[in-house]
Automatic annotation (TrEMBL):
Residues covered by the Carbohydrate kinase PfkB domain: 89-347
InterPro entries: Carb_kinase_PfkB-like, Carboh/pur_kinase_PfkB_CS, PfkB_dom, Ribokinase-like
Homology family: Belongs to the carbohydrate kinase PfkB family.
Xref: PROSITE patterns: PFKB_KINASES_2 (PS00584)
Record key words, sorted: Kinase, Transferase
Top-level taxon in the UniProt lineage: Bacteria
Name used for this protein in its record: Adenosine kinase
A Pfam family matched in the record: PfkB
Length: 362
């Protein structure tokens, strides 16, 4: 299992699902009380992609398949050593918000950028994808965050992230009306690193729950889990978080076990609902003692695993907030993950709603 790996079976053609189309409206509807389906909270990061071989990772001390936090000096050094690069707006929860909007749902985003060139690029991109983004930019010396992402020939990505303005997201950036008028709030575990962000997330969760909404999170990375294991478990067991997304490595890390079955049983007791991705083995959805296995989709070519987990969450949450059963939620997640890993970049270049309709999922 690779951190953040998608739900794929490389080397075979993608096959549309055979189940019949659902009798759903052509476009999803939201009530006046809940104009947003999902509010995402995360690091607003501009991704810089470059291809490299494994020797480059070793020579530069980069941990393969993980997200490594770096300082400004390290960011400049790695950027100077990169080959030809592609820049694109990213960040885990921002990718999920873009995916949800591509399915046709109403998405909003909280994330901090600086009032600089990359900040303007990020704001333009996420709004152009149909996501409501109104967080005030940071004025000062700290620049917008960026992540150097090195993609090896096996499609694995190794991220080296300078958080920059992201660390300044705090309670003052919480838009109470969006929190209260969203069906569900989703945040990334990566955002648990900056202290101010913890307060912002807890405040948003309080507003959401008070208004009858739910809260979900992604564990993000095994190294993130190692840093905040006790706090993540407290979020789940206290009811602050209702729904958890993880991959197999993150789940095992959370419960400090080598047994996937033991970890599944544990998370079934600790939160209302969990979805665990297993790369080519698909995913497992856990609700109490109930487990539902979802098959992987088949693809033509594995290009880049960046954003696979983010887009799985997008598909799953789209299904969840539009009232579909858990099997369909998982299938929508697998579909979105399978699409994004066949491209460079973490945000869907293909309309996900149209893809789901063609696959018979909508």
């Amino acid at each position: 299992m690779q951190p953040g790996g998608g739900l794929v079976t490389p080397g075979r053609c993608f096959k549309p699902a055979t189940n019949p189309p659902r009798n759903n409206p052509a476009e999803p509807k939201v009530t006046s009380a809940k104009p947003f389906d999902v509010l995402c909270i995360g690091n607003a990061i501009v991704d810089v992609f470059a291809r490299c071989d494994d020797d480059f990772l070793v020579d530069n001390g980069i941990v393969k398949g993980a997200m490594n936090l770096i300082d400004a000096e390290r960011a400049e050094l790695l950027y100077s050593r990169m080959g030809p690069a592609i820049e694109a707006s990213g960040g885990s929860a921002g990718n999920t918000a873009a995916g949800i909007a591509s399915f046709g749902a109403a998405a909003a985003f909280f994330g901090k950028v600086a009032d600089d060139h990359l900040g303007k690029v990020y704001a333009h991109d996420i709004r152009a994808q149909g996501v409501a983004f109104d967080t005030q930019p940071l004025n000062g010396q700290t620049p917008t965050a960026r992540s150097m992402i090195f993609v090896t020939p096996d499609g694995e990505r190794s991220m080296n992230t300078y958080l920059g303005a992201c660390v300044e997201l705090g309670p003052d950036d919480v838009e109470r009306d969006k929190a209260e008028r969203s069906k569900l709030v989703y945040f990334e575990g990566y955002l648990w690193d900056p202290p101010l962000a913890k307060d912002a997330i807890r405040l948003t969760a309080q507003h959401a729950h008070a208004a009858g909404g739910e809260v979900s999170m992604t564990l993000s990375d095994p190294f993130c889990v190692d840093r905040y294991r006790d706090e993540f478990l407290e979020l789940m067991r206290s009811g602050t978080v209702d729904i958890v997304f993880a991959n197999e490595s993150e789940l095992k890390s959370l419960y400090q076990t080598a047994s996937f079955e033991t970890a599944l049983e544990a998370i079934g007791k600790d939160c209302k609902l969990a979805a665990v991705t297993r790369s080519e083995h698909g995913s497992v959805i856990v609700r109490g003692a109930e487990t539902i296995a979802i098959d992987a989709v088949e693809i033509n070519e594995l290009v880049d695993t960046t954003g696979a987990g983010d887009l799985y969450a997008a598909g799953f949450l789209y299904g969840y907030v539009t009232g579909r059963d858990l099997v369909d939620c998982g299938r929508l997640g697998s579909l979105a993950a399978g699409i994004v890993i066949q491209q460079i970049g973490p945000r869907p270049q293909k309309n996900l709603r149209e893809a789901a309709q063609q696959s018979g999922l909508l």
